[in-house]
Amino acid sequence: MLETLAPNTKLEEYPLELTGLQDPIHMWHRLIAYLGLDDEQVIVAMRRTSETLLRDAAEFVVGAYDYLASFDETASILGWEQEMDEEHLEERRQFFATWMARAIGVDLSEEFADYLFRAGILHAGHGPRGIHTPPQWVMGAVSMVQAHFAERILHYGHDRELAAQAIGGWNKYLMLQNYQMLAGYNVATALDEGPITVTAKLYGKLQAIAGLEEQTIHAHNDDTLADVLRKFFNYHPALREEFFEVKWRTPEDDVEATWATDFEKVYTPRQGPYWRILLNGKEIRYHGGLEQPIHHGDMIAFFPPGR
């Protein structure tokens, strides 16, 4: 009798499943396989020409920025229409020289993939100087590196068969890097799209991983919380490992489904104890879930277990 009179205080629990997240590290590995950069003979050929490419690397780095300063559009992007900023020039040369050294070493590591992804984000105007470099100029610069590598390999008289295999490998490898930077650029520009803004506030170890305490996310008036979270976790793929568990959703009644095209990756917050997402102070697991609308000025907070 007492049980029937007791109020039902259990809150409705909303399912928290996020889909549609991009995975730049997974795509990095898939493209390595697709381009044949997992072929040891190709990598050996490229590395046999690495010493050749290192001979003129410093001269190429200096010349590259002299050229960027002389070309109207790129000089304007860098703020060098009147004259070079020597401090800025030194920063750029250091970055380019570091990248050249890692590229010439044929770095295929996940850490380098993340480095390139972050470089793309910086080119979208998210760096400390706020300089936005449209992708056509980045792709153009990469194509110049391709041409330089090919010219140097042929100039120093490598065996014809070796040269052909190495040049083909370098072209594919630089296009792989181009894609990775473009992936970073695209998630950064997506974060800036939309007339309204919401704020993501991070707590605990997420701050250290993301390197920030809060971030502004632009959105559209008809966006849901899921749309905003998708932008945020695409921008910060490293946060997913802490926050989410991953499962695969199989298509229903589709006997021709393949892993490559039809199986969907689903992200759900880790269970027991779990991270919590609060929208304007209310835990979304019990208040509205992921499909609720968002509004200008909303605050999304990410709390670690126990907070």
Task: Write up this protein.
Helix content is 52%, strand content 12%. By secondary structure, the protein is an alpha+beta fold. It has two domains: 35-191, Globins (Globin-like, Orthogonal Bundle), CATH 1.10.490.10; 196-303, Roll (Ubiquitin-like (UB roll)). The strands form two sheets. A five-stranded mixed sheet has the order 2-1-7-5-6. It has a two-stranded antiparallel ribbon with strand order 3-4. It is globular. The model is unreliable at 1-6 (pLDDT under 50).
List the keywords.
single chain, alpha+beta, Globin-like, Ubiquitin-like (UB roll), five-stranded mixed beta sheet, 52% helix, globular
Element layout with pairings:
Elements: H1 2-5, H2 24-34, H3 40-48, H4 50-55, H5 57-70, H6 72-78, H7 86-104, H8 110-123, H9 135-155, H10 160-191, E1 196-202, H11 205-210, E2 214-219, H12 225-235, H13 237-243, E3 244-249, E4 264-269, E5 276-279, E6 282-283, E7 299-303
Helix pairs in contact: 2-8, 2-10, 3-10, 5-7, 8-10, 9-10, 10-12
Describe the structure in brief.
It is built from 13 helices and 7 strands.
Overall domain count: 2
CATH class of the largest domain: Mainly Alpha
**CATH architecture descriptor name of the largest domain:** Orthogonal Bundle
Strand arrangement across the biggest beta sheet? 2-1-7-5-6
CATH level 4 superfamily of the largest domain: Globins
Number of strands: 7
How many helices? The count is 13
Rg value: 24 Å
| Residue-averaged pLDDT | 91
- Euclidean distance between termini CA atoms: 37 Å
N-to-C SSE string, H for helix and E for strand: HHHHHHHHHHEHEHHEEEEE
Give the oligomeric state: single chain
CATH topology of the largest domain: Globin-like
Content of β-strand: 5-15%
Overall shape: it is globular
Strand count, sense and barrel status of the largest sheet are: 5 strands, mixed
Q: Give unreliable regions as ranges.
A: 1-6
